[in-house]
Amino acid sequence: MEILMNTGRSYDHDDYLAFKKSVLEAGVLRKEVRLRDIQPVDGRSIVVEGKTVAISERAYRDLVKRVVGSKKMTSRYNNLAHPERQTQFLKMLINTVVPAGETVVLGVNPETKSVVSILNGSRPLFSNKLFFDVFERSMNDVPGLEIRRMEYSVRQGVSITTVNKYWEFGYQREKFKSGIAFLNDPAGGIFVSPFNERLICINGMVVHTALSSISLVENTAPALREFLNTLPKLDSMRQYETQLAERIKILEKTPVSVAELAHAHRTVKGYVDNIGLDKETCRQRLNSLLPLNLVLSDYKAMGCDLNKMDASCKREARTPISAWDLINRITWLSSNGNGYLPLTAGDSARLQAFAGILALEHSFDHQRKVPALYDNIKFEALPVEAEPVFF
Fold first, then answer.
1. Is 30 helix (H, G, I), strand (E, B) or coil?
2. Which residue among 15, 152, 275, 357 is least packed, with the fewest CB closer than 10 Å?
3. What are the pLDDT digits (tens) for 79-101?
4. Are 152 and 345 in contact (CB under 8 A)?
């Protein structure tokens, strides 16, 4: 089940109450089980503690990833040509390799009763009621916040994005409005992070950094108390605006490497939901947005097949796309491009977070890490008879 409210306008109190009611009524069915008590039937169903239940394609991929683990085992699994052989291989690993006490939490769609997510059993889960309490407390503590986006899915959790009508800053010809993003992630915890909404060129980017964000990831009384005590100080999140302006100056002049373009391509591809759009159209549109294949073809035409070279070569090979342009493309897709490439509600928010990580946390391959001391120095040739000076 998914609920999405994203029309580009601000939502009023009644809209929020309707969204909150829908989420709380939808509920989340969760069941903690031993991983060894799950037996795959095929890619569409599993047996859990003796009962056969349906499982979504994405949840089944999560199961495979959790059980198969290492790259070597993943390669063996993928090389098995027939689905039945893959299922038998997966059963063998569950029964022999998975530790007997390892547990997972199954997320179940309350309408279809199918498994839609598989989470780590050791992670704490926070109720949506607590999330809404946190959100409402923040709305009361920080004047000027307006709701711009509300999303819910059983697999991805609840997210609400706000913009503060009093928080605005600019960089050259671009203008930004700042705000706060709230997320209850079933796989991680409750996060409160800075957010900025572009008024020109692009729309929407979450900036998620350890410096700026606060999070609740431990289900203990002291952790909850510390988290709630921090909420009244949320206006301090505006500190990241100066960071962002400084970063933009660097990102505009920094070409991304082929390795970085490939990483962004893989990330976006992982979020694309093929339901409602055929795979070939998805592939073409993705390659138009993030032209990895075109760049690889250009290099190959010059006699350099990067696919046959090691990772260091891909990190050194430049592309015609700047880091700022790459971030712009991802933020456009996450906030305006759902008709271009279909995304789930939760995946749009995660792509925004990915763009924010690139903007403030990521060190790009061609970004200078030390001062360029000798760029403007003319070196004189050493006379033949002169003694070399070593220092």
1. strand
2. 275
3. 877 888 888 888 898 888 888 88
4. yes
The string of pLDDT tens digits covering residues 148-162 is 888 887 777 888 988
DSSP state of 70: S
Cα 207 to Cα 213: distance, rounded to the nearest angstrom: 9
Q: What share of the chain is helix, strand, coil (3-state, %, to 5)?
A: 45, 25, 30
Mean pLDDT over 331-358 rounds to: 73
Task: Tell me what pLDDT residue 386 has.
Answer: 47
d(CA 195, CA 205): 6
Please give the sequence-ordered ranges of beta strands (E in DSSP) within the chain, or none if there are none.
2-5, 29-34, 38-42, 45-48, 51-54, 103-108, 115-120, 145-153, 157-171, 174-185, 189-198, 205-206, 214-216, 255-257, 318-322
CA angle 141, 354, 311 (to 5 degrees): 155
- Within 10 angstroms of residue 122's Cβ, the number of other Cβ atoms is 9
Please say whether the beta carbons of 31 and 104 come within 8 A: no
Q: What is the mean pLDDT of the chain?
A: 77
SS3 117: strand
Q: Is the pTM here over 0.85, yes or no?
A: no
pLDDT tens profile 243-300: 777 778 888 888 999 999 999 998 888 877 655 677 888 888 888 999 999 999 999 9
The one-letter amino acid code at 5 reads M
Collapsing DSSP to helix, strand or coil, 81 comes out as coil
Instruction: Give the DSSP H or E segment for 128.
Output: helix 128-141
- Radius of gyration (C-alpha) of the chain in whole angstroms: 24
Tokens standing for 2?
A: 């998914």
Are 182 and 16 in contact by the 8 Å Cβ rule? The answer is no
Give Cβ neighbours of residue 131 (< 8 Å, ≥ 6 apart).
158, 182, 184, 190
C-alpha 226/C-alpha 221 separation (Å) is 9
Give the side-chain half-sphere CA count within 13 A for 279.
1
DSSP 307: G
